[in-house]
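TICKET: design request
STATUS: open
ATTACHED STRUCTURE:
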């Protein structure tokens, strides 16, 4: 069931259509991070007043929550070495602003980031997927709660850092999510956010074929709309840059599966020829934003 929504940033009910594809309704259970469901992202619009890009209409709240609660993504575990390295890349940036204390990760998946963060922080996770929480608890002995962001589990001002990597674009009410993060942070606390950049060069060039457009992504930010939403939630942006990551050549190749066969086959042949499928490659495609913001003291 799809429902019509107003702009999540300014509330205006006036938008123009950017891209329009059929929405794969069944694909909401396909919320997995490693999904290959690209071309079924529905109707993506831009707010005429403030420029915010979002999916409209979008699946109803209950359908989204049920999808995330039952999400199972075994492919996610196959890149465990690179995901651990990516966690350290994020922590290196976070530690420029906060070196110790209590840290909450919203959308902690199977716990790679929290496990890496434990070296410096008292780390806790919120993650709607029961499957992912179970792995985080059993494999890493982490403190994670299979609860949505609307939880009242944490008192106000209980964290020094809140981290959200590839999460805000999935949430039903991103401004409310940032406000909750602000509530949970101590004054001067740090919010760390990574999300796709809908104004990046690859998004502009690839248009409706950009890999950032997915059925599970319902909000698309650029630097301006992200900065504005953070400000309205009580944050001051302190660092803003593009975010690169490490994956195996095989994983990067799998991201091209929905592109023309000739492109996919050529890259596949090159990777197999070089024998590097399992080797790791760091790539910054300049279409993911990494932001550090302080809660106003
Ligand atoms: Zn707007």
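STATUS: resolved
RESOLUTION: sequence designed for all positions
ATTACHED SEQUENCE:
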């Amino acid at each position: 069931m799809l429902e019509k929504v107003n702009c999540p940033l300014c509330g205006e009910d006036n938008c123009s259509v950017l891209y329009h594809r059929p929405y794969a309704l069944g694909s909401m259970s396909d919320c997995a991070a490693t999904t290959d469901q690209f071309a079924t992202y529905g109707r993506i619009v831009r707010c005429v007043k403030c420029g915010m890009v979002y999916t409209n209409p979008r699946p109803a709240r209950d359908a989204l929550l049920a999808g995330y609660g039952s999400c199972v993504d075994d492919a996610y575990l196959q890149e465990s070495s690179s995901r651990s390295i990516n966690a350290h890349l994020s922590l290196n940036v976070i530690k420029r602003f906060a070196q110790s204390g209590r840290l909450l990760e919203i959308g902690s998946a199977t716990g790679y980031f929290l496990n890496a963060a434990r070296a410096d922080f008292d780390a806790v996770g919120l993650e709607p997927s029961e499957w992912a929480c179970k792995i985080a608890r059993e494999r890493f002995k982490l403190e994670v709660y299979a609860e949505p962001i609307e939880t009242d589990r944490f008192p106000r001002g209980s964290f020094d850092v809140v981290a959200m990597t590839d999460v805000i674009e999935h949430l039903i009410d991103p401004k409310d999510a940032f406000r909750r993060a602000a509530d949970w942070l101590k004054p001067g606390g740090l919010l760390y956010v990574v999300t796709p950049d809908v104004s990046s060069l690859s998004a502009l060039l690839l248009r409706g074929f950009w890999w950032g457009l997915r059925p599970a992504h319902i909000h698309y930010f650029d630097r301006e709309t992200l900065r504005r939403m953070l400000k309205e939630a009580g944050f001051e942006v302190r660092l803003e840059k593009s975010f690169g990551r490490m994956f195996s050549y095989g994983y990067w190749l799998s991201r091209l599966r929905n592109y023309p066969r000739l492109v996919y086959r050529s890259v596949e042949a090159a990777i197999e020829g070089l024998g590097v499928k399992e080797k790791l490659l760091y790539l910054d495609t300049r279409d993911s934003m990494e932001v550090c913001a302080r809660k106003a003291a």
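CLOSING REMARK: Residues 100 and 118 are 10 Å apart (CA to CA). Residues 7, 9-10, 12, 47, 49-50, 52 surround zinc ion (CB under 6 Å).
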